[in-house]
Specification:
Layout lengths: L1 E2 L10 H18 L1 E3 L2 H9 L3 E3 L2 E3 L2 H8 L6 E3 L8 E3 L3 E4 L7 E4 L2 E4 L2 H13 L21 H12 L4 E2 L5 H15 L2 H6 L3 E7 L4 E2 L1 H12 L4 E9 L7 H22 L5 E4 L1 E5 L6 E2 L3 H16 L4 E2 L12 H17 L3 E2 L5 E2 L4 E3 H17 L12 H7 L9 H6 L15 H6 L5 H15 L7 H17 L3
Parallel strand pairs: 2-12, 7-18, 8-20, 10-11, 11-13, 13-14, 13-15, 14-17
Antiparallel strand pairs: 1-7, 2-4, 3-4, 5-6, 8-9, 15-16, 19-20
Helix pairs in contact: 1-9, 3-9, 4-5, 5-6, 5-17, 6-8, 10-11, 11-12, 12-16
Protein backbone atom coordinates (compact mmCIF):
# COMPACT_ATOMS: atom_id res chain seq x y z
CA UNK A 1 0.00 0.00 0.00
CA UNK A 2 1.03 3.59 -0.53
CA UNK A 3 2.60 5.78 2.13
CA UNK A 4 2.27 9.51 1.61
CA UNK A 5 5.09 11.11 3.58
CA UNK A 6 4.80 14.49 1.87
CA UNK A 7 3.95 17.46 4.13
CA UNK A 8 0.21 17.91 4.64
CA UNK A 9 -1.51 20.88 3.01
CA UNK A 10 -3.32 22.57 5.88
CA UNK A 11 -5.42 25.68 5.30
CA UNK A 12 -7.19 26.26 8.62
CA UNK A 13 -5.71 28.83 11.01
CA UNK A 14 -5.96 28.36 14.77
CA UNK A 15 -8.70 30.99 14.84
CA UNK A 16 -10.69 29.19 12.14
CA UNK A 17 -10.36 25.87 13.97
CA UNK A 18 -11.62 27.58 17.11
CA UNK A 19 -14.68 28.86 15.21
CA UNK A 20 -15.46 25.34 14.01
CA UNK A 21 -14.95 23.99 17.53
CA UNK A 22 -17.52 26.41 18.91
CA UNK A 23 -19.87 25.50 16.07
CA UNK A 24 -20.05 21.73 16.59
CA UNK A 25 -20.29 22.17 20.35
CA UNK A 26 -23.38 24.38 19.99
CA UNK A 27 -25.02 21.96 17.56
CA UNK A 28 -24.66 18.87 19.75
CA UNK A 29 -25.59 20.63 23.00
CA UNK A 30 -28.34 23.04 21.86
CA UNK A 31 -29.87 21.33 18.80
CA UNK A 32 -29.06 17.70 19.53
CA UNK A 33 -28.71 14.75 17.16
CA UNK A 34 -31.38 12.15 16.40
CA UNK A 35 -30.63 8.44 16.79
CA UNK A 36 -33.49 6.42 15.33
CA UNK A 37 -32.54 3.17 17.11
CA UNK A 38 -33.98 3.05 20.67
CA UNK A 39 -30.99 1.06 21.89
CA UNK A 40 -28.67 3.92 20.93
CA UNK A 41 -30.75 6.48 22.81
CA UNK A 42 -30.84 4.21 25.86
CA UNK A 43 -27.05 3.87 25.85
CA UNK A 44 -26.59 7.63 25.74
CA UNK A 45 -29.19 8.16 28.48
CA UNK A 46 -27.43 5.60 30.67
CA UNK A 47 -24.20 7.54 30.13
CA UNK A 48 -25.85 10.69 31.46
CA UNK A 49 -26.87 12.49 28.26
CA UNK A 50 -30.20 14.31 28.12
CA UNK A 51 -32.66 12.74 25.69
CA UNK A 52 -36.03 13.76 24.25
CA UNK A 53 -37.59 10.97 22.25
CA UNK A 54 -35.10 10.04 19.53
CA UNK A 55 -32.97 13.13 20.12
CA UNK A 56 -29.83 13.20 22.23
CA UNK A 57 -28.31 16.39 23.62
CA UNK A 58 -24.60 16.05 24.27
CA UNK A 59 -22.09 17.44 26.69
CA UNK A 60 -19.23 18.27 24.27
CA UNK A 61 -16.63 17.19 26.83
CA UNK A 62 -18.34 13.80 27.09
CA UNK A 63 -18.11 13.49 23.29
CA UNK A 64 -14.39 14.25 23.38
CA UNK A 65 -13.85 11.68 26.15
CA UNK A 66 -15.47 8.99 24.01
CA UNK A 67 -13.62 10.00 20.84
CA UNK A 68 -10.32 9.77 22.70
CA UNK A 69 -10.95 6.04 23.26
CA UNK A 70 -10.77 5.28 19.50
CA UNK A 71 -7.39 4.08 18.21
CA UNK A 72 -5.36 6.53 16.14
CA UNK A 73 -4.22 3.72 13.83
CA UNK A 74 -5.11 0.08 13.24
CA UNK A 75 -4.58 -2.80 10.81
CA UNK A 76 -6.96 -4.69 8.54
CA UNK A 77 -5.92 -8.19 7.50
CA UNK A 78 -6.55 -9.60 4.05
CA UNK A 79 -6.83 -13.21 2.91
CA UNK A 80 -3.38 -12.74 1.39
CA UNK A 81 -1.13 -11.25 4.11
CA UNK A 82 0.77 -9.34 1.41
CA UNK A 83 -2.42 -7.29 0.96
CA UNK A 84 -2.87 -6.35 4.61
CA UNK A 85 -3.36 -2.61 5.14
CA UNK A 86 -2.65 -0.10 7.87
CA UNK A 87 -5.26 2.57 8.53
CA UNK A 88 -4.00 5.93 9.76
CA UNK A 89 -0.72 7.79 9.92
CA UNK A 90 0.76 8.43 6.50
CA UNK A 91 -0.87 5.39 4.88
CA UNK A 92 -3.39 5.80 2.04
CA UNK A 93 -5.84 3.03 1.10
CA UNK A 94 -7.65 3.01 -2.26
CA UNK A 95 -11.00 1.33 -2.76
CA UNK A 96 -13.40 1.12 -5.71
CA UNK A 97 -16.51 3.19 -6.39
CA UNK A 98 -19.38 2.39 -4.02
CA UNK A 99 -23.13 2.34 -4.58
CA UNK A 100 -24.03 3.00 -8.26
CA UNK A 101 -27.21 1.32 -9.52
CA UNK A 102 -26.07 1.59 -13.15
CA UNK A 103 -23.03 0.38 -15.08
CA UNK A 104 -21.45 1.76 -18.25
CA UNK A 105 -19.45 -0.36 -20.70
CA UNK A 106 -18.64 1.76 -23.73
CA UNK A 107 -21.87 3.20 -25.14
CA UNK A 108 -24.10 0.89 -23.09
CA UNK A 109 -25.56 2.23 -19.84
CA UNK A 110 -27.68 -0.35 -18.02
CA UNK A 111 -28.70 -1.68 -14.62
CA UNK A 112 -25.82 -3.25 -12.74
CA UNK A 113 -25.63 -7.06 -12.64
CA UNK A 114 -23.75 -9.68 -10.66
CA UNK A 115 -21.58 -10.26 -13.71
CA UNK A 116 -20.62 -6.57 -13.61
CA UNK A 117 -19.86 -6.84 -9.89
CA UNK A 118 -17.66 -9.89 -10.43
CA UNK A 119 -15.81 -8.17 -13.26
CA UNK A 120 -15.09 -5.15 -11.07
CA UNK A 121 -13.81 -7.52 -8.38
CA UNK A 122 -11.47 -9.08 -10.94
CA UNK A 123 -10.17 -5.65 -11.94
CA UNK A 124 -9.55 -4.70 -8.30
CA UNK A 125 -7.55 -7.90 -7.91
CA UNK A 126 -5.63 -7.26 -11.14
CA UNK A 127 -4.48 -3.69 -10.43
CA UNK A 128 -1.83 -3.43 -7.72
CA UNK A 129 -2.71 0.19 -6.94
CA UNK A 130 -6.16 -0.89 -5.73
CA UNK A 131 -6.11 -2.05 -2.11
CA UNK A 132 -9.70 -3.31 -2.02
CA UNK A 133 -12.62 -4.23 -4.23
CA UNK A 134 -14.69 -2.18 -1.79
CA UNK A 135 -18.34 -2.82 -1.04
CA UNK A 136 -21.28 -2.28 -3.39
CA UNK A 137 -19.14 -1.48 -6.45
CA UNK A 138 -22.40 -1.63 -8.39
CA UNK A 139 -25.86 -2.71 -7.34
CA UNK A 140 -26.50 -6.17 -8.89
CA UNK A 141 -30.14 -5.60 -9.80
CA UNK A 142 -30.52 -9.06 -11.36
CA UNK A 143 -29.92 -10.71 -7.96
CA UNK A 144 -32.70 -11.01 -5.33
CA UNK A 145 -32.80 -7.94 -3.11
CA UNK A 146 -32.84 -9.79 0.21
CA UNK A 147 -29.84 -12.01 -0.51
CA UNK A 148 -27.66 -10.17 -3.03
CA UNK A 149 -25.34 -9.05 -0.22
CA UNK A 150 -24.36 -12.72 0.19
CA UNK A 151 -23.42 -13.01 -3.48
CA UNK A 152 -21.40 -9.81 -3.40
CA UNK A 153 -19.50 -10.87 -0.29
CA UNK A 154 -18.83 -14.31 -1.72
CA UNK A 155 -17.47 -12.74 -4.93
CA UNK A 156 -15.25 -10.31 -3.00
CA UNK A 157 -13.91 -13.12 -0.79
CA UNK A 158 -13.21 -15.62 -3.58
CA UNK A 159 -12.32 -13.50 -6.62
CA UNK A 160 -9.91 -11.32 -4.66
CA UNK A 161 -7.51 -11.90 -1.79
CA UNK A 162 -7.70 -8.27 -0.67
CA UNK A 163 -9.82 -6.93 2.18
CA UNK A 164 -13.43 -5.95 1.54
CA UNK A 165 -16.22 -3.74 2.86
CA UNK A 166 -19.19 -5.08 4.83
CA UNK A 167 -22.89 -4.61 4.14
CA UNK A 168 -24.69 -1.93 6.16
CA UNK A 169 -28.27 -2.06 4.87
CA UNK A 170 -29.41 -3.80 8.07
CA UNK A 171 -28.12 -5.43 11.22
CA UNK A 172 -28.95 -8.83 9.76
CA UNK A 173 -26.78 -8.23 6.70
CA UNK A 174 -23.96 -6.96 8.88
CA UNK A 175 -24.25 -10.18 10.90
CA UNK A 176 -23.95 -12.18 7.66
CA UNK A 177 -20.79 -10.25 6.81
CA UNK A 178 -19.31 -11.07 10.20
CA UNK A 179 -20.25 -14.76 10.02
CA UNK A 180 -18.77 -15.17 6.54
CA UNK A 181 -15.64 -13.37 7.75
CA UNK A 182 -15.37 -15.83 10.64
CA UNK A 183 -15.50 -18.69 8.13
CA UNK A 184 -12.85 -17.07 5.94
CA UNK A 185 -10.42 -16.21 8.74
CA UNK A 186 -10.96 -18.99 11.24
CA UNK A 187 -13.37 -17.75 13.87
CA UNK A 188 -14.57 -14.78 15.88
CA UNK A 189 -11.40 -14.44 17.93
CA UNK A 190 -9.27 -14.13 14.80
CA UNK A 191 -11.30 -11.28 13.33
CA UNK A 192 -11.62 -9.44 16.65
CA UNK A 193 -7.87 -9.57 17.18
CA UNK A 194 -7.22 -8.00 13.77
CA UNK A 195 -10.17 -6.66 11.74
CA UNK A 196 -10.84 -8.09 8.27
CA UNK A 197 -13.38 -5.67 6.81
CA UNK A 198 -14.47 -2.06 7.08
CA UNK A 199 -17.98 -0.67 6.64
CA UNK A 200 -19.55 2.65 5.77
CA UNK A 201 -22.21 3.95 8.16
CA UNK A 202 -23.76 7.13 6.73
CA UNK A 203 -25.50 9.81 8.73
CA UNK A 204 -28.87 10.81 7.30
CA UNK A 205 -27.85 14.46 7.28
CA UNK A 206 -28.84 16.79 8.75
CA UNK A 207 -28.39 15.49 12.29
CA UNK A 208 -30.04 12.08 12.09
CA UNK A 209 -28.60 8.57 12.33
CA UNK A 210 -31.17 6.15 10.90
CA UNK A 211 -32.16 2.86 12.48
CA UNK A 212 -30.97 0.44 9.76
CA UNK A 213 -27.42 1.71 9.65
CA UNK A 214 -27.29 1.98 13.42
CA UNK A 215 -28.23 -1.70 13.61
CA UNK A 216 -25.26 -2.47 11.38
CA UNK A 217 -23.02 -0.21 13.46
CA UNK A 218 -23.92 -2.15 16.61
CA UNK A 219 -23.04 -5.47 14.93
CA UNK A 220 -19.67 -4.29 13.62
CA UNK A 221 -18.65 -2.45 16.78
CA UNK A 222 -19.41 -5.50 18.93
CA UNK A 223 -17.21 -7.59 16.59
CA UNK A 224 -14.50 -4.88 16.63
CA UNK A 225 -14.74 -4.40 12.88
CA UNK A 226 -14.01 -0.77 11.93
CA UNK A 227 -16.76 1.54 10.73
CA UNK A 228 -16.46 4.77 8.76
CA UNK A 229 -18.85 7.25 10.39
CA UNK A 230 -19.64 9.52 7.49
CA UNK A 231 -22.15 12.36 7.07
CA UNK A 232 -23.63 12.78 3.57
CA UNK A 233 -23.30 16.50 2.98
CA UNK A 234 -24.24 18.35 -0.18
CA UNK A 235 -24.12 22.05 0.64
CA UNK A 236 -27.46 23.66 -0.13
CA UNK A 237 -29.39 20.42 0.42
CA UNK A 238 -28.20 18.50 3.49
CA UNK A 239 -26.19 21.37 4.98
CA UNK A 240 -26.14 25.17 4.72
CA UNK A 241 -24.56 26.94 1.74
CA UNK A 242 -21.50 27.75 3.82
CA UNK A 243 -18.28 25.77 4.12
CA UNK A 244 -17.74 26.59 7.84
CA UNK A 245 -21.37 25.71 8.71
CA UNK A 246 -21.07 22.44 6.80
CA UNK A 247 -17.79 21.55 8.47
CA UNK A 248 -19.24 22.23 11.93
CA UNK A 249 -22.25 20.04 11.08
CA UNK A 250 -19.91 17.34 9.81
CA UNK A 251 -17.98 17.42 13.06
CA UNK A 252 -21.17 17.24 15.13
CA UNK A 253 -22.50 14.26 13.19
CA UNK A 254 -19.26 12.32 12.92
CA UNK A 255 -18.12 12.83 16.50
CA UNK A 256 -21.47 11.79 17.97
CA UNK A 257 -21.47 8.67 15.77
CA UNK A 258 -17.97 7.84 16.97
CA UNK A 259 -19.13 8.37 20.57
CA UNK A 260 -21.80 5.72 20.11
CA UNK A 261 -19.25 3.24 18.77
CA UNK A 262 -17.06 3.74 21.82
CA UNK A 263 -20.00 3.27 24.18
CA UNK A 264 -20.89 0.02 22.41
CA UNK A 265 -17.33 -1.29 22.57
CA UNK A 266 -14.58 0.98 23.96
CA UNK A 267 -11.52 1.01 21.72
CA UNK A 268 -13.38 -0.28 18.65
CA UNK A 269 -11.69 1.10 15.52
CA UNK A 270 -13.41 3.93 13.65
CA UNK A 271 -12.67 6.30 10.78
CA UNK A 272 -13.67 9.98 10.74
CA UNK A 273 -15.77 10.06 7.58
CA UNK A 274 -16.59 12.84 5.15
CA UNK A 275 -18.62 13.06 1.97
CA UNK A 276 -18.79 16.76 1.23
CA UNK A 277 -19.66 18.66 -1.91
CA UNK A 278 -22.40 21.02 -3.09
CA UNK A 279 -25.46 21.16 -5.32
CA UNK A 280 -25.91 23.28 -8.42
CA UNK A 281 -28.09 26.11 -7.15
CA UNK A 282 -29.86 26.44 -10.51
CA UNK A 283 -30.86 22.80 -11.09
CA UNK A 284 -30.47 21.24 -7.63
CA UNK A 285 -28.25 18.51 -9.08
CA UNK A 286 -25.19 17.34 -7.08
CA UNK A 287 -21.88 18.74 -8.27
CA UNK A 288 -18.48 17.10 -7.79
CA UNK A 289 -14.94 18.25 -8.40
CA UNK A 290 -15.84 21.78 -7.31
CA UNK A 291 -13.48 24.22 -5.58
CA UNK A 292 -15.75 24.14 -2.53
CA UNK A 293 -15.54 20.35 -2.26
CA UNK A 294 -11.74 20.54 -2.51
CA UNK A 295 -11.59 23.15 0.26
CA UNK A 296 -13.86 21.04 2.44
CA UNK A 297 -11.69 18.00 1.78
CA UNK A 298 -8.49 19.77 2.83
CA UNK A 299 -10.19 21.10 5.96
CA UNK A 300 -11.47 17.62 6.84
CA UNK A 301 -7.97 16.20 6.91
CA UNK A 302 -6.81 18.93 9.27
CA UNK A 303 -9.89 18.45 11.48
CA UNK A 304 -9.43 14.67 11.73
CA UNK A 305 -5.78 15.10 12.71
CA UNK A 306 -6.93 17.59 15.36
CA UNK A 307 -8.94 14.75 16.95
CA UNK A 308 -6.19 12.14 16.38
CA UNK A 309 -8.38 10.05 14.10
CA UNK A 310 -7.81 8.36 10.74
CA UNK A 311 -10.10 9.82 8.11
CA UNK A 312 -11.93 9.08 4.89
CA UNK A 313 -12.72 11.61 2.17
CA UNK A 314 -12.08 12.35 -1.50
CA UNK A 315 -11.80 9.96 -4.42
CA UNK A 316 -12.38 10.10 -8.16
CA UNK A 317 -15.74 11.88 -8.05
CA UNK A 318 -17.22 13.83 -10.95
CA UNK A 319 -20.57 14.79 -12.49
CA UNK A 320 -19.79 13.80 -16.09
CA UNK A 321 -22.07 11.48 -18.08
CA UNK A 322 -19.17 9.94 -20.01
CA UNK A 323 -15.51 9.12 -19.27
CA UNK A 324 -14.48 12.33 -21.04
CA UNK A 325 -12.53 15.54 -20.38
CA UNK A 326 -15.03 16.74 -17.77
CA UNK A 327 -14.78 13.41 -15.93
CA UNK A 328 -10.98 13.56 -15.94
CA UNK A 329 -10.79 17.21 -14.88
CA UNK A 330 -13.32 16.96 -12.05
CA UNK A 331 -11.73 13.73 -10.85
CA UNK A 332 -8.32 15.41 -10.65
CA UNK A 333 -9.92 18.35 -8.80
CA UNK A 334 -10.88 15.82 -6.12
CA UNK A 335 -7.94 13.42 -6.26
CA UNK A 336 -5.27 16.10 -5.94
CA UNK A 337 -6.57 17.47 -2.61
CA UNK A 338 -7.13 13.86 -1.54
CA UNK A 339 -3.37 13.36 -1.77
CA UNK A 340 -2.52 16.82 -0.41
CA UNK A 341 -4.64 16.09 2.66
CA UNK A 342 -3.04 12.65 3.11
CA UNK A 343 -6.41 10.89 3.21
CA UNK A 344 -6.17 7.53 4.97
CA UNK A 345 -9.11 5.73 3.38
CA UNK A 346 -10.15 6.75 -0.14
CA UNK A 347 -13.49 5.40 -1.28
CA UNK A 348 -14.63 5.95 -4.88
CA UNK A 349 -10.99 5.82 -6.03
CA UNK A 350 -11.88 4.22 -9.37
CA UNK A 351 -14.95 3.91 -11.58
CA UNK A 352 -17.16 6.79 -10.38
CA UNK A 353 -19.23 8.48 -13.09
CA UNK A 354 -22.40 10.57 -13.40
CA UNK A 355 -22.46 11.83 -9.83
CA UNK A 356 -22.13 8.31 -8.44
CA UNK A 357 -25.08 6.86 -10.36
CA UNK A 358 -22.82 4.91 -12.70
CA UNK A 359 -19.86 2.56 -12.28
CA UNK A 360 -17.85 2.78 -15.49
CA UNK A 361 -15.31 0.20 -16.60
CA UNK A 362 -13.45 2.67 -18.83
CA UNK A 363 -13.38 5.25 -16.04
CA UNK A 364 -12.06 2.58 -13.65
CA UNK A 365 -9.00 2.13 -15.87
CA UNK A 366 -8.54 5.88 -16.29
CA UNK A 367 -8.65 6.36 -12.52
CA UNK A 368 -6.15 3.58 -11.88
CA UNK A 369 -3.76 5.31 -14.29
CA UNK A 370 -4.29 8.62 -12.47
CA UNK A 371 -3.70 6.98 -9.07
CA UNK A 372 -0.44 5.45 -10.22
CA UNK A 373 0.73 8.81 -11.55
CA UNK A 374 -0.21 10.65 -8.37
CA UNK A 375 1.48 8.06 -6.19
CA UNK A 376 4.65 8.62 -8.18
CA UNK A 377 4.23 12.40 -7.85
CA UNK A 378 3.75 12.16 -4.08
CA UNK A 379 6.80 9.97 -3.51
CA UNK A 380 9.50 12.12 -1.86
CA UNK A 381 12.68 12.75 -3.78
CA UNK A 382 16.08 11.97 -2.31
CA UNK A 383 18.87 13.63 -4.29
CA UNK A 384 22.39 12.22 -4.43
CA UNK A 385 25.58 13.53 -6.02
CA UNK A 386 25.43 10.64 -8.50
CA UNK A 387 22.07 11.90 -9.77
CA UNK A 388 23.61 15.24 -10.66
CA UNK A 389 25.06 13.35 -13.64
CA UNK A 390 28.14 15.57 -13.91
CA UNK A 391 29.81 12.92 -16.06
CA UNK A 392 26.97 13.16 -18.59
CA UNK A 393 27.66 16.88 -18.96
CA UNK A 394 31.33 16.12 -19.46
CA UNK A 395 30.50 13.55 -22.13
CA UNK A 396 27.98 15.67 -24.09
CA UNK A 397 29.47 19.12 -23.71
CA UNK A 398 27.86 22.33 -24.91
CA UNK A 399 25.22 22.21 -27.65
CA UNK A 400 24.97 18.41 -27.78
CA UNK A 401 22.17 16.06 -26.74
CA UNK A 402 21.82 13.37 -24.12
CA UNK A 403 19.92 10.72 -26.09
CA UNK A 404 22.92 8.48 -26.53
CA UNK A 405 24.87 9.48 -23.44
CA UNK A 406 26.09 6.66 -21.19
CA UNK A 407 24.04 8.04 -18.29
CA UNK A 408 20.90 7.91 -20.43
CA UNK A 409 21.57 4.45 -21.82
CA UNK A 410 22.04 3.03 -18.34
CA UNK A 411 18.73 4.46 -17.09
CA UNK A 412 16.32 5.00 -19.98
CA UNK A 413 14.12 2.01 -19.12
CA UNK A 414 13.35 3.20 -15.57
CA UNK A 415 14.22 6.91 -15.36
CA UNK A 416 10.64 8.14 -15.94
CA UNK A 417 7.21 6.81 -15.10
CA UNK A 418 5.69 5.44 -18.30
CA UNK A 419 1.88 5.65 -18.43
CA UNK A 420 0.22 2.66 -20.04
CA UNK A 421 -3.05 4.43 -20.93
CA UNK A 422 -2.16 7.96 -21.97
CA UNK A 423 -0.85 8.37 -25.51
CA UNK A 424 2.02 10.58 -26.69
CA UNK A 425 2.36 9.34 -30.30
CA UNK A 426 2.62 11.93 -33.03
CA UNK A 427 -0.52 12.55 -35.05
CA UNK A 428 0.50 10.35 -37.97
CA UNK A 429 1.30 7.32 -35.82
CA UNK A 430 -1.83 7.85 -33.69
CA UNK A 431 -3.95 7.96 -36.85
CA UNK A 432 -2.28 4.92 -38.34
CA UNK A 433 -3.00 2.91 -35.18
CA UNK A 434 -6.72 3.64 -35.33
CA UNK A 435 -7.08 7.17 -33.90
CA UNK A 436 -8.38 5.72 -30.64
CA UNK A 437 -9.39 8.08 -27.86
CA UNK A 438 -8.69 7.48 -24.17
CA UNK A 439 -11.96 5.67 -23.49
CA UNK A 440 -11.35 3.25 -26.36
CA UNK A 441 -7.86 2.47 -25.12
CA UNK A 442 -9.23 2.01 -21.60
CA UNK A 443 -11.81 -0.45 -22.89
CA UNK A 444 -9.12 -2.55 -24.55
CA UNK A 445 -7.13 -2.59 -21.31
CA UNK A 446 -9.98 -3.68 -19.03
CA UNK A 447 -11.12 -6.33 -21.51
CA UNK A 448 -7.56 -7.70 -21.65
CA UNK A 449 -7.33 -7.65 -17.84
CA UNK A 450 -10.54 -9.65 -17.56
CA UNK A 451 -9.37 -12.09 -20.23
CA UNK A 452 -6.07 -12.66 -18.42
CA UNK A 453 -7.56 -12.75 -14.91
CA UNK A 454 -6.62 -15.71 -12.72
CA UNK A 455 -8.36 -16.18 -9.37
CA UNK A 456 -6.07 -16.11 -6.35
CA UNK A 457 -5.54 -19.50 -4.69
CA UNK A 458 -7.96 -20.42 -1.92
CA UNK A 459 -8.48 -23.30 0.46
CA UNK A 460 -11.26 -25.35 -1.17
CA UNK A 461 -12.72 -26.37 2.18
CA UNK A 462 -13.19 -22.71 3.11
CA UNK A 463 -14.66 -21.94 -0.31
CA UNK A 464 -17.14 -24.78 0.10
CA UNK A 465 -18.11 -23.68 3.61
CA UNK A 466 -18.74 -20.15 2.36
CA UNK A 467 -20.81 -21.49 -0.52
CA UNK A 468 -22.86 -23.64 1.84
CA UNK A 469 -23.47 -20.66 4.11
CA UNK A 470 -24.64 -18.49 1.19
CA UNK A 471 -26.93 -21.26 -0.08
CA UNK A 472 -28.46 -21.85 3.35
CA UNK A 473 -28.95 -18.18 4.11
CA UNK A 474 -30.52 -17.54 0.70
CA UNK A 475 -33.15 -20.18 1.50
CA UNK A 476 -33.71 -18.75 4.98
CA UNK A 477 -34.22 -15.29 3.47
CA UNK A 478 -36.80 -16.62 1.05
CA UNK A 479 -34.75 -16.24 -2.12
Amino acid sequence: MFRNTMPRYEILSEDSMAVLDRGWRRIVSELGVEFMAPEAVEIFAAAGMRTEGDKVFFDPEFVLEQVAKAPREFDIQARNPDNNVHVGGDHMIFSSVYGPPFVRRGDRRADGTMEDFRDFAKLAQSFEVMDSVGGVVCEPNDAPLDSRHLDMLYAAMTLTDKFYMGNVVSGERAADTIRMSEILFGGREAIEETPVCISLVNCNSPLRWDDRMLEAQFEYARARQPVILSPFLLMGAMSPVSIPATLAQQMAETLTGISLTQLINPGAPVVFGSFLSNIDMQSGAPQFGTPESAIGLLCTGQIARHFNLPFRTGGGMNSAQLPDAQAAFETLMTLMPTFLAGTNFVMHSAGWLEGGLVASFEKYVMDVQALESLQREFTPVDFTDEELAFGAHQEVGSGGHFLGAEHTMERFRTCFYRPWLWNCDNFERWTRLGARDTAERAREIYEKKLEDYEPPPMDEAIREELHEYVTRRRIELGD
